[in-house]
Input
Amino acid sequence: MNFENLIQKFNVQNILPNSEIWQHRFLGNSLGRYVAGLIVFIGLLMFLKMFKSIIVTRLRKITDKTKSNLDDFVMDFFEHKLFPILYFGAFYIAVLQLNLNPGIKKLVNSAGVIYLAFQVTGFGYKITEYFLKEKIDLRSKYKINDTTSAGILLFIKFLFWGLCTTFVLDNLGFDISAIIAGLGVGGVALALASQNILNDLFNYFVIFFDRPFEVGDFIIVGDFAGTIKKIGIKTTRIASLSGEELIFANSDLTSSRVKNYKRMQMRRVVFELGATYDTPVDKMEKIPGIIKEIIDGIEETKFDRCHFKSYGAFSLNIETVYYVNGNDYTKYMDIQQDINFKIKRAFEKEVIEFAFPTQTLYVEKND
Output
């Protein structure tokens, strides 16, 4: 015995008084059947309202006192997803009290299938969204940022509603296999026509899952540099240092060598300076110590080495290497400027001259 037969077996019309007035027919049903359907609908509606006002309200007061978001999510599901389905179920049971012609009955069943499919799909997506935002973000070793979550949720939403549409069409009597086969042939032609677009779309997800860069990162791609402003489905937009907006196809970025300065933990700095050739050896030997003392005295820096590197065309070249903590370019330039000032003062104190391009011309006079 199916559900419909079970409902009709316990038809509320059977409890109505036996009177001719209930036998008057309208649109294929007696007045008694309409009253029975109305009684069933109102009775179930009152029961659900009572249950919601007593049980759910009390549970809501309890969950509001807890720190967990899970119980709040469950209560929101009961109020906004489950009860609308139960209300529709009450309406459906009431309609079963009537003798409907096949066309109307099929229409009611189809509406029920569509409504339930949309509600279940929405609930499934909400669960996925909750798990992604509340659980993965809090428990994952590598937290997913908002932009990445939005990209993943977009893909999941497309998947959920695609399955929902397939389910609805199948229950409405459409030949899904023929539709899918037709879409397959058309899809091949569409894929060939939009190969570049699909390639950028695929690389959109590559960027989200691999995360070579994120919104707000300062990157250098070839001869271009700037800050990531937006990662779109097809293109990524970068604000350059000179102010204009640079637009890159996602496939261009994933196939290029990208320097991401936002993730640089320590900046390695190499600079050279030159002393004149007439600088005495004892003063040249002092230079590495002078520079080391200067760098060691500046916070957020780590001295690495300083050497008399080579003999240049017009100078004795000294190479220095040190590290700056962090990736702030302005901070690095402030430190380098401080080092340059202190080296200049120290060289003036030791009477060490900086070299600059010079030429010595020897003139030989012949009798």
User: Anything to note?
Assistant: The chain is about 55% helix and 15% strand.
